[in-house]
Amino acid sequence: MNINKNKGFTLIELMIVVAVIGIIAAIALPSYQDYVKRARRADAKANILLVQLAEEKWRANHATFTSDLTATGLNFGTAFDATKSPYYTIALATPAPASTNYTITAAIRAGSAQVGDSCGTFTLTVSSAGDVYSATGGADCWKK
After folding, report:
1. 19 in a domain, yes or no?
2. 111: containing domain
3. Which of 32, 94, 30 is nearest to 64 (CA)?
């Protein structure tokens, strides 16, 4: 008596596997997207601090801050180009002559994948009264 048994998966079993994969993807994808946005925020903050470092280095050797960052050795003028920060526009507010204050901003580029991020624009204002870190989404964004 030879009985041929089919070996394989039933349609029900395959549908259960597809449903489980769908549930896992629905949970994992938003977490991954949030992680990617946080990483891009970290890049923006690092670029702001890079500009701050260049300004402080310049100030150590001169009487005031500069609005021309190429003079400090950085390869850009008063704003980063898209290759250096594709998700944020990093800009230095031009300090007045003989100024000891300046402001650096990191604004989300229009049309980039970062649009809609809850933290929005990052700002660093440096003055003789102290540094002020702020963000559109609140000061806690600098900690995230």
Report:
1. no
2. 42-142
3. 94
